[in-house]
Design a protein that fits this description.
Elements lengths: L1 H26 L4 E5 L2 E5 L1 H33 L4 H26 L3 H15 L2 H15 L2 H13 L4 H15 L2 H14 L4 H13 L3 H13 L5 H18 L5 H13 L4 H13 L3 H14 L3 H10 L5 H12 L6 H13 L3 H8 L2 H4 L3 H13 L4 H13 L1 E8 L5 E2 L15 E9 L25 E3 L5 E3 L1 H26 L1
Antiparallel strand pairs: 1-2, 3-4, 3-5, 6-7
């Protein structure tokens, strides 16, 4: 408000000054006499003042024209001028607009349009460090992998964009299945930027898939160092890598047992690490250390592999002695399913079938699986039940769930043995010991051998036959059902034999 008032006052004052000046010039006597080529002009004071103003305007206009002409000459010569800066600003405006439209097209999945906009942006801007990445990504989306690779190689030549170029070619190699080249590129990218989380993950996966356990442990340590991995998860995965390193070593390699011990120290609840560590102590005649390791792992998670390793500590003991010794494990989780199954198998081995039935309880009815049903068949056989009853339990075992197995959390693939990398989906540290709904499979070995279901079952029943009028024998539906049960029993017996031989 005040500034507006000042401007109004200034305008009024200017008008007043001009009016007074014009009045003074009109009242003034004399004038200006100008002679040009023999012609004489006499101007009044006011006319002289107007002429002076006109001359000043003409001089200003001539100077401006001369300045413009000089600017045109300099522009044509390539010098930086106001005119060139005007055109540059116009080109930059169009280039950045094309760059923005290309990025929007890329985000929308329009690869061809994004590639065209990237080319236009490059033409206007002339800054490949800004447009090359868009060009490469647009070319990939459009299916032009050669052009994308060529642009990524251009990015590698520049130190500021080298990491982006290496990452781009790395993704192409992974898409093409060239894991060997991808591993080298991932190592290069990791060297350029060790703190980049996605590069760390890609490198770790490639190293694990190629069984480079030592390199994978270094990469895992880098993830922890740069804050990309919680300490607890780091210890678990480091244990998995150390265990894998122990598996890869030969039996006579002294580093194998040390790696297993390291894996068990980092993750005492990792069952394969505990088993391998205990087996190493057993080989070194250190049963106390083996017992301690197995008890710690059993406390965390009862597992049949732990029981099998526990049995290896004293291989020549009697069944009764084994039952007594195994109480140190069983009492840690007396009501756990694995403890009850294990104790039932031990009682069967000792031929104490009532005790086995008592320990097993109603597991076979309430939560049936291959193992519990097979144990129940062994109990019935040991107690002298008919073959029909035994075969009934075995027939149920054929179609029953497998029970706890090593299952990949990522793809739900079942594995007979634990592994650090899933062979189906290549995911790392995804194996979990859990129940699987899939029917019929390999029975997980336990500590007992179930010797009573190894032999062939005798069939004392008389076959039901029906004689036709022509004297030929025909099979009845009941006989067909019996044969089906026999086939199921034979299959289960084969499974039991495999289990016994593996134990």
């Amino acid at each position: 408000m005040l500034w507006s008032l000042v401007k109004i006052i200034f305008f009024i004052a200017l008008i007043g000054v001009l009016t007074l000046t014009a009045g003074a010039l009109l009242e003034a006597r004399g004038g200006l006499q100008v002679t040009i080529t023999g012609f004489e002009f006499t101007l009044a004071p006011l006319q002289a003042a107007i002429l002076a103003v006109i001359l000043l305007l003409l001089v200003w206009l001539i100077l401006k024209i001369l300045s413009l002409m000089m600017a045109v000459v300099r522009f044509l010569n390539g010098d930086d001028t106001a005119l060139s800066r005007y055109f540059n600003r116009n080109r930059e405006r169009k280039g950045f607009q094309a760059l923005s439209e290309g990025m929007m097209a890329l985000a929308s999945g329009e690869g061809r349009l994004a590639l065209a906009k990237a080319s236009k942006a490059e033409r206007y801007l002339g800054q490949p460090e800004l447009t090359n990445l868009l060009t490469a990504q647009a070319a990939e989306m459009a299916g032009d992998t050669r052009k994308a690779e060529a642009v990524y190689k251009q990015l590698i030549q520049n130190t500021t964009t080298r990491f982006v170029g290496v990452r781009g070619i790395l993704k192409q190699k992974l898409a093409n299945g060239d894991t060997e080249s991808a591993l080298k590129l991932a190592e290069h990218a990791f060297g350029l930027k060790p703190s980049h989380e996605d590069t760390q993950d890609v490198l770790l996966k490639l190293q694990a898939n190629s069984a480079d356990w030592a390199g994978a442990r270094k990469t895992l340590s880098a993830k922890l160092k740069h804050g990309n991995l919680p300490r607890g998860i780091h210890k678990r995965r480091d244990a998995v890598l150390a265990l894998s390193e122990a598996y890869e070593a030969t039996d006579d390699d002294p580093t194998a047992h040390a790696a297993a011990i390291e894996a068990n120290r980092l993750s005492p609840d990792l069952v394969p690490a505990a088993v391998l560590t205990a087996q190493g102590y057993i080989a070194q005649a250190k049963p106390r250390y083996a017992v301690r390791v197995l008890k710690t792992a059993w406390q965390a998670q009862p597992h049949p592999d732990l029981a099998a390793a526990f049995a290896q500590i004293v291989p020549d003991e009697t069944p009764v002695q084994r039952i007594k010794r195994f109480q140190t494990l069983i009492k840690l989780h007396p009501d756990h399913r694995e403890s009850r199954l294990l104790l039932a198998e031990l009682y069967i081995t000792a031929e104490d079938f009532p005790a086995a039935r008592r320990v097993l309880g109603r597991l076979a009815e309430e939560a049936p699986d291959v193992r519990s049903l097979t144990i129940m068949a062994a109990i019935e056989r040991g107690e002298g039940s008919s073959d029909t009853i035994v075969k009934g339990w075995l027939a149920r075992a054929v179609t029953a769930p497998r029970g706890p197995q090593w299952v990949c959390d990522n793809c739900n693939t079942l594995q007979t043995n634990w592994s650090a990398v899933c062979p189906n989906c290549d995911s790392f540290d995804s194996q979990s010991w859990k129940a699987s709904p899939m029917p019929f499979g390999t029975i997980t070995p336990g500590s007992g051998m179930l010797p009573l279901i190894i032999g062939a079952l005798e069939d004392h029943s008389e076959p039901e036959e029906r004689t036709s009028d022509t004297g030929q024998k025909e099979r009845s539906p009941a006989s067909d059902d019996a044969d089906t049960q026999e086939d199921a029993a034979d299959t289960s017996e084969s499974i039991a034999c495999t289990k016994a031989s593996g134990s």
